[in-house]
């Protein structure tokens, strides 16, 4: 029934693909991209369940041996270094679970976007939406590039550059991306080593996909809201052009309806993804502080390749936090522009009753629009600066505690 409803935008299918670039493919590979139809087919549901089971199996196949090594074999410095991948993995498990359980809310957000693209009123509105979507595409592409670089460096450096090392007892050790311990099984023996290495490589791809999928969803949704706010500003600027009774009623109704729709959409997005953003920012803050400590430590050892690896990981975490805070800041700035535009509405040229209605629009326009991390931390560039300061404070604490 939904397919036969006429669309104002004949290019909405192409526009929708343009706006959602990469994200559906990433989440489909994880088995969690929501179906926009009424129900998924049985075959599709079975495939999704299989992908979810496989993804969790790969994560735990890496998490359990690494946790055992951390508990039974790790020194203080080794535990500090290993704490990061272990915390990152636990966060990935949590984020994956949130995305699985939140598929219905994500579906509603995607439907909002689809309806907005279908109902684009004119070329100017379409161009505004595509401009915001273009920014979102670039941010998602940057995030994917950094995560791919991080995964490649973490998985390939032990194999290609470091290879085998000889310890103080003249025992040859083949390195893994993350140290592992399996009780009676020797992880250095063939084929246990090769299996563990392959599992950790596949695990890296899964966790990177979870992170980029979460970042991609928030980026697409928030930048779409920014595009809708630009359209709202355009509606407000056109309000005073013709103040005839019928035109005023129609324009005022369009402004109110559009404003309420944007706020409902943002409330749904925040409810669906605030936990994802909180986990992502929390773990990225840990990565920034601990990786900076590891970089300084390796400078003393003059280990250039490991320094490069830690630097790539540090940059990836920083970029992730920056993207979250940047899109949140773009939303705040665009909402402030809407508030300023509402002050310019020529309410004094309207009858008293209409002027009072317009006053409600102005009041609503001045209510802040934000996306939060965990419902208590507004995402903005100020928050990004605070996170950077906190990470350096943790770095100083580590240097003073461990040395």
UniProtKB/TrEMBL annotation:
Keyword field: Cell membrane, Membrane, Olfaction, Receptor, Sensory transduction, Transducer, Transmembrane, Transmembrane helix
Localization of this protein: Cell membrane
Topology in the lipid bilayer: Multi-pass membrane protein
Presence of keyword Transmembrane: yes
GO BP term (any one): signal transduction
GO molecular function: odorant binding; olfactory receptor activity
GO cellular component, as recorded: plasma membrane
Domain of life: Eukaryota
InterPro entries: 7tm6_olfct_rcpt
TM ranges: 18-37, 49-70, 82-102, 139-161, 202-226, 272-293, 305-327
Main location: membrane
Family designation: Belongs to the insect chemoreceptor superfamily. Heteromeric odorant receptor channel (TC 1.A.69) family.
Name this polypeptide is given: Odorant receptor
